[in-house]
Specification:
By secondary structure, this protein is an alpha/beta fold. The protein contains 6 helices and 15 strands. It is globular and about 45 Å long. Bound molecules: citrulline.
Length: about 260
Amino acid sequence: MIFNFTKALVRAPGRSVVNGLSSQTGPRPSFETIAAEHARYIEALKSCGLGVEILPPLENYPDSIFVEDPALVFTGAAILLRPGAPSRQGEVKEIEGALRKRFARVLAIEEGFADGGDMLLTPAGMFIGLSSRTDQAGARQLGGLLRQLGMDSRVVKTPPGTLHLKTDCSLIAEDHVLCTAALAASDIFEGYRKLVVPESERAAANALRLNDTLLVGGRFPETIRLLKGAGYKVEPVPNEGVGRIDAGLSCMSLRWN
Ligand code: CIR
């Protein structure tokens, strides 16, 4: 089952995390806020039954806490990506050793750019979102590597102004997507049931299904109410600080079985 996970890899935030890339003009989060949110996130992963390994902080890479972006992981295999933001490209070398220790097969894209935040895994294969971080060359390379691992993929467009495809959507059941109105209006999720987040809670669309639980940002009461009403077991996790540097919940771990 696509939501069965037993292990997760995370990276502790360095003090430099407060300088993480952000499209927002509001105040920067404090280190203490992000560290507390990260600790709480690790507890949530554990409470969902995952064994969590914590990599050391990397002060030279403010966004390196978002380990989902430089790599993809599957049972027995990992793919090293090429993040589209120049300040994040060195994160790949930094995580490579940890992945080689844990995965028998490690593939790597060699051209173009691709961020893990643009990759949405579904039972039918991987959606690859083209964005300001993921380009055609990266998508093409990744599609080839996924094929080597026996996986189909489909290239789609991340809505303009949205950082990553998964900023705007999450798979919450095999045939059910939590998404923003912008994505619901596109043809990407034809054939899927959709639960649209309220416009005032757009950032709630980045949730994380782990086994039978859905982690959702704690600051999104209306979305939590809708998800509970639809029968989901929801665990609210605080994420306001990381939200100020354009992050949600999926980005802070790599998960596998
Ligand atoms: C960035 O702009 O790269 C970080 N500040 C946020 C990355 C969030 N990643 C993700 O949602 N996969």
